[in-house]
Please model this.
Amino acid sequence: MKPVKTIKPILAISVASIIVLIMFVREAKSFYSRCEKDPKACESKESKAQQKDFSKTEWANWTPPEKSDAAVKAWEEFKKKYPTANVTWNVNTGFPSMISNFQTEPYSGAPNKIAEIFINELQTLLGIDMAELQMSETRVMADYGQSGILVKYQQIYKGVSIEDSSVELSISEKGAVDSIKLNYYPDIRVKNVTPIITSDDAVNIIKQDLDTLEAPIKAPEISLVFDRPTETPPALFLAWKIKIEFPEMAQQTANSSKAWLYYIDAHTGEVLHVWDSKIY
Model:
């Protein structure tokens, strides 16, 4: 009788497995049927917003640049003058990304003039063209135990701002420079700074990407910028930076947000990348 008792549970499990399999097959057929009718409905959010494919651009064979002999020599001279100074090199540019732990003799003049003089004195070491810098901030530092003045510049190329590209100097109350931090890009290969895709086209591309063509939107925040989708290579693309909001969209949607920050290639219309603007 023991074999009979063991067969019954096995039969019960087998029947249950068959039922689950039948339900799975039915659901799979239904899913693929929907995909055939509307392929976009089966695309994931990630598949729509892929990062730029650099294998098809002039950056395909890019390799990190070596530090120039002139920049290295300029650093050695700076180090002799300020023995405690430290430098961090930017592997994507071959120039410093930070120089710290030093203090110059006090300069005279306003903080922005002091910053300009210092940058021009170290032009060979820093690789900075002052013509591409625009003053963005000057403020007194009174946090984290620091004191003095912070002078910050935004990098501009042919009148267009470069995202996340800036130069910051710390200046003491007496006018001495004691650090410089830079995220500056000297190797800019963009030749055409005239958009081919209009800002209206870019907004429609976003609505298509979010499957919200009919949803009402607030007036989007739009600006033309140079965007850098990845750290490496440091490729720049002319892009429409657009923050778009859907005030009437239900909070629990497939996209999980009512506001997005998009970067749309202004030449091709590609989605360079997209962020949930709730984190901003």
